[in-house]
Protein: DNA/RNA helicase, superfamily II
Organism: Pseudomonas syringae pv. coryli
Amino acid sequence: MFFVEVAPVFSEFALHERLLKAVAELKFVEPTPVQAAAIPLALQGRDLRVTAQTGSGKT
């Protein structure tokens, strides 16, 4: 299991400008806990297997 420092808002992730714009247009500001933990690892090119309760915001 990996623990990472959580980015409080999507704009603090090193995401492509077009993706950040789309997220902002959808009015998403803060990632869910599972997104905050997974996104930095995915950006490092890591393979992920993420489990979380239904409705917790995995997508």
